[in-house]
UniProtKB/TrEMBL annotation:
GO terms for cellular component: cytoplasm. InterPro entries: ACT-like_dom_sf, ACT_dom, Chor_mutase/pphenate_deHydtase, Preph_deHydtase, Preph_deHydtase_CS. Keywords: Amino-acid biosynthesis, Aromatic amino acid biosynthesis, Lyase, Phenylalanine biosynthesis. This is Prephenate dehydratase. The record marks T183 as: Essential for prephenate dehydratase activity. It catalyses: prephenate + H(+) = 3-phenylpyruvate + CO2 + H2O. It comes from the Bacteria. Residues 2-190 form the Prephenate dehydratase domain. GO terms for biological process: L-phenylalanine biosynthetic process. Pathway: Amino-acid biosynthesis; L-phenylalanine biosynthesis; phenylpyruvate from prephenate: step 1/1. It is an enzyme of class 4 (lyase).
Amino acid sequence: MKTIAVLPAGSVSDEAARYFFGGEQIDWKYHRLISDVFLSTVNGISEYSIIPIENTIEGSVSLHMDWLVHEVDIPIQAEWVYPSIQNLIGRQAEAQGAEGAVDYSKITKVISHPVAIAQCLQFLRTNLPHAVTEHVSSTAEGVRIVQNNPNAGWAAIGTKTAAANEKLDVIASEITDHDNNYTRFLLVGSEPYTARQSDKFKTSILVTLPEDYPGALHQVLAAFAWRKINLSRIESRPTKKKLGNYYFFIDIDMALDTVLLPSALQEIEAIGCQVRVLGSYPSFIEFKK
């Protein structure tokens, strides 16, 4: 039985984890903070950690990227996507108006993870412009807080699973601003993931450019371009060592042991770039209901 660290029960991460592992027997280790999810695997408490890393609407989750790069050294072993379906959760009786309709004026505060709140801004602006928003560590944590504070006029944004777990009502369902709201998840750990097979592989690398080499980024991209190696993502993040100094997070649609990729990385290193391989792993990017 695998032991896997994940954000709290009822969070989107929890739903995504259960979707990905299906009927496998898993010992789930739930943690309130993403730092504890990472450290669970670092400290040998769990074999793997599940990390939400990118969202259709909000883009990269910077805090999680920084942990992956600066705080831990755990390779990526797989990736998949899962829909982030958010709902307004609370007590129906507290938000009920005339003839059973929802009276949003009775809700004074909305609690959730900042990414989930950002995914529902249009709904909040239209229906709850008066409500205070409060950020917490996960959507499941927000639902739990609402459960522990009856008659406060509070609601949470989260999953239907979290609502059921806390015995709360779904006041409004599917409130995200866009229908194609998907989150990309990473499985990180020291052991390769072999339980499922995929015909698609990716390699993620971190490239730090030499400071005194004009045109270095152009040469990095050229090393992939002339070999016709596709890059599915390139993003800059500060190295946290010097103002204006950045590293580049690059996802490559190719396994590391493919013929062309090692030579491309050698060419990049030859011009003075530092290259760190974050993982070469199967990609299960297609979501199937």
